[in-house]
Predict the structure.
Amino acid sequence: MISALLLAAGASKRFGRPKLLLPLGNSTILERSLDNLLDSKVTEVIVVIGYHANEARRLIASKPVKIVVNRDYRQGMSTSLRAGLDMVSSHATAIMIALADLPFITTAAVDTLIEAFKYSNKGIIVPVHKSKRGHPVILSTKYKDELSRLKGDVGGRETIRRHSDDILEVAVDSESIYQDIDTLASYQSYLKSNVEKT
């Protein structure tokens, strides 16, 4: 059982406004990222919201997800991780950490990572494209306690760094695993080059 955490609580500091609520195709950045997970083989999806939480909740309220509000989101990504981890099913064997500002990651890529976890003996699965690592990542629930102890603006990367011998890198044929939307310029660029394709 794979429990996916979609981290969507950040304050969009570099963007200047709530970027996850912006339109992307027929939906929004947040909805696109969420739907990519819902269409995959993950067993459950937990969405962690914070910045403009009421608007975000309205967008996704009808979807089959668990929603948790991280009121401490300004204190860094680790607070969102902890909030999401508290909602993970006790039956989960692994936790997928996904970022909501990477909306172009395909369901096929997500499923490739899930299959890799299922059939490997490694506890950490990391997607790679052209030697560059990206998201989402999968970590065995044996790392849940360690993840829950993280502080500040750090995510799963710190735990991954500590356990390099337990990593399986999985080649993904798409740069979408690191195509995040961080600035207005990147949003406009991705709109132009990607929306028409999807």
